[in-house]
């Protein structure tokens, strides 16, 4: 069944728009680069998203909030990794 647009509870898309060189833009790149380099972390994130999507299927805000600690942890790990090893 196709959802009708308009009602806040019927959102079908979620987009990120960031200002280039902003902290949030750089953090997004750090997070994505770290996921690309680490299959285990990528699988953990996929599993987290799957579990949260099932648990909060009708609550996008809580789904998003519940990912924050994982994402912040990965951003910190990514910063340490890239400071030590560079971009390679």
TrEMBL record:
It comes from the Bacteria. Signal peptide: none annotated. InterPro entries: GrpB/CoaE, NT_sf. Coiled coil: none annotated. SUPFAM superfamilies: Nucleotidyltransferase (SSF81301). PANTHER family: GRPB DOMAIN PROTEIN (AFU_ORTHOLOGUE AFUA_1G01530) (PTHR34822), GRPB FAMILY PROTEIN (PTHR34822:SF1). This is GrpB family protein. It comes from Senegalia massiliensis.
């Amino acid at each position: 069944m196709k959802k009708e647009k308009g009602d806040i509870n019927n959102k079908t898309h979620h987009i990120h728009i960031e200002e280039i060189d902003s902290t949030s833009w750089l953090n997004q790149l750090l997070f994505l680069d770290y996921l690309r380099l680490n299959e285990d972390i990528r699988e953990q994130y996929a599993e987290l998203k799957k579990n949260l999507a099932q648990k909060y299927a009708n609550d996008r805000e809580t789904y998003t909030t519940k990912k924050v600690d994982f994402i912040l942890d990965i951003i910190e790990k990514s910063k340490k990794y890239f400071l030590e090893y560079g971009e390679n």
